[in-house]
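SAMPLE LOG
Freezer: B-3
Tube label: C17
Construct: single chain, 148 aa
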Amino acid sequence: MYTYERLYRLCGENSNESDIAHYLLKNSSSIARLSVKKIKEDLGISKSSLHRFYNSGGYSSFKNLISILNEEIENKKFIFKYSINYKENYSATPAVTIFNNRQIEIFIKKLSNTKHVVFYGNSFEIFFFKNLCQYLFYCDVDVSFLDI
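STRUCTURE (predicted):
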């Protein structure tokens, strides 16, 4: 589960955790510059409350939480930016793209050396990756789908 989505779900509660989650999401544009001191001052919470918050989420430190959250936010920006131009990009792609066997081997090898792969597209497009996904599963690669 993504950190961003966890925080979003916490926002509906009435607790310190909800306040912290809401604060982090509200300040997502400057997340990399946030500090423990700033959050404590702005929310009026103790350092131990913040420690319990990131510790309960499985993060080793506040910096670890912020680093992961910042990476997810940047990825979301990239996906959103790409999705805006999706139809434009798709129509510009040749109808038939031909890959030689060597290119396919390199692609699969690169994918099998990763920890996580996300396939982005509609259900029809993602369906064509079914066999590749099974192969990646056997290589201990976590596969996710973002179905548009």
